[in-house]
Design the sequence.
């Protein structure tokens, strides 16, 4: 399975999670390419059978230009020039591609999240195989990932390796 991970990160937490997920997939023998959102391809290569899309949660949703600027004002070393939401609008959809989203956030597990919003946006853009994946907790006191989250991301990556993308050109499984 060829895996493409596209992530947005300002403080580095979402990038670290993406790297851990990728390491879990690679450990199970999958080819993984990780792109920051501003350099992500607008056409998903044909050999990609799993697309992972990650974003930080800002104000219980995907980022905006304003929330990215606010993150920099609050100490983020950088902010992408475009966010996941803008990339989703630009990427050419592949109807049957297996897609999972993930996010980082400081809020509880049952509140709105960037992962949920990204899955909805991807489906609206024609990625019918998009589903909400996982949320990874950021400690609001330190702005770093909570204890154990990188290990959990790695384990999720290994679990994703077991997903069957189905034959090319078919609708992905519902798991």
Sequence:
């Amino acid at each position: 399975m060829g895996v493409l991970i596209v992530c947005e990160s300002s403080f580095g937490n979402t990038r670290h999670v993406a790297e851990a997920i990728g390491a879990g997939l690679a450990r199970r023998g999958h080819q993984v390419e990780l792109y920051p959102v501003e350099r992500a391809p607008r056409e998903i290569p044909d050999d990609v059978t799993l697309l992972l899309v990650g974003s930080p949660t800002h104000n219980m949703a995907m980022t905006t230009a304003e929330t990215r600027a606010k993150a920099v004002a609050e100490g983020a070393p950088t902010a992408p020039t475009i966010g996941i939401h803008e990339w989703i609008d630009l990427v050419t959809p592949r109807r049957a591609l297996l897609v999972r989203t993930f996010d980082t956030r400081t809020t509880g597990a049952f509140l709105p999240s960037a992962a949920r919003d990204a899955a909805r946006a991807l489906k609206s853009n024609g990625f019918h195989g998009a589903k909400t994946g996982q949320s990874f907790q950021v400690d609001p006191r330190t702005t770093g990932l909570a204890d154990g989250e990188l290990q959990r991301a790695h384990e999720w990556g290994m679990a994703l390796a077991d997903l069957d993308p189905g034959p090319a050109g078919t609708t992905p499984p519902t798991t």
